[in-house]
Write a structure and sequence with these properties.
Blueprint: H1 9-19, H2 22-29, H3 36-46, E1 49-50, E2 65-67, E3 70-72, E4 76-78, H4 91-102, E5 105-108, H5 116-120, E6 129-133, H6 139-150, E7 156-162, H7 172-180, H8 203-208, H9 217-227, E8 232-237, H10 240-248, E9 253-258, H11 272-282, H12 286-289, E10 291-295, H13 301-309, E11 314-317, H14 319-351, E12 364-365, H15 367-370
Parallel strand pairs: 4-5, 4-11, 5-6, 6-7, 7-8, 8-9, 9-10, 10-11
Antiparallel strand pairs: 1-12, 2-3
The structure holds ligand FNR.
Length: 372
Amino acid sequence: PPMESLLNLHEIEELARRRISERAWAYYYSSSDDTYSKSFNNAVYRDILLRPRVFVDCMRCDSSTTLLNHKVGVPIYVSPAAMARLAHPDGEAGIARACARFGAMQIVSNNASLTPEQIVADAPQGQVFGWQLYVQNDRAKSEAMLARINQMSDRFKFICLTLDAPVPGKRELDEKQSFKNAVKVAAGVATGNESSRPGGGGVGQQLFWGTAADLTWKVTLPWLAQHTNLPIVVKGIQTHEDAYLAAKYAPQVKAVILSNHGGRALDTAPPAVHTLLEIRRYCPEVFERVEVWVDGGIKRGTDVVKALCLGAKAVGIGRPALFGLGAGGQAGVERTLEILKAETETCMRLLGVEKVSDLGMRHINTRKVERD
Ligand code: FNR
């Protein structure tokens, strides 16, 4: 079907499910244990009510913003997610070309299925990329990758250090597939992870082979600073305590991403909305010291707007980008971004808000969520 006939992210996901291999679907869709966190991620947005103001001129609407002082077309970015070519040969480069059309930022996974050079090859001036790092046990491998990314600092504007998955969660849907459809995971073209551990486990477990589980604020941050001058964004913060700690490392740490890894790490870990509310309550100064980005469960423009109202500067999409790719390659990702952007702007208009910086707590009612 033509991509225009797909009206929302649910329809794109459904088409992707039919188009991509059972193996790819299991890897992308899966989350840990009983998949509670994945369900919370989306359900929590339903429980936040919007408070529209009416009789307001809403002819104009501008959903552009700035992230780390770079201008971006939308407050929506593509989260780092491994192995995009399992969905479509366009892979991460197709995602990059789609992002270019909307001025959207993209964070490239440590376990991408194309090299960073290939991914940014067609990017126009000013398109913003981040590179996500899983520190490897063999630190020399990570140091070599950092050196390579430093060389491309006209493209890669920050390093995103993922902290919430020192070990992979137990993703049963993914693990189950391995007994039916064993694949040799040829990921990490870049990282050299292709000689992953022999057999067994899901794609997730194979990709994590070699990833370090001994990272700490005190040792790993200084090590990282020795190997890059790029700003650092830490991903996977799930408590106000850790958000506060991360903000103490400003200005070296410039942003934090509140995320439970799409429910793929610790099951029953909180959705980003809960962490946003905790930070507002216990250490609101975090918002002044670092940018706060969130991801997990974003399906609608209203979800995007609610996160922004709570203080997030940007909202990431993981699976929706992969499903867009699965549904129609680059064109499918373009349609995904087009829908989310249009829904976000419609939501802003119906709220009576012209620009992103005007969104705030007065536009939402969080009573139902705060009761938890
Ligand atoms: C991820 N995620 C992830 N995160 C990361 O830091 N490095 C990675 O390589 C990956 N890989 C990855 C693969 C797949 C298939 C998924 C679904 C997710 C997590 C990702 O960045 C993000 O936190 C979640 O996907 C956000 O949730 P949604 O949008 O998928 O609900």
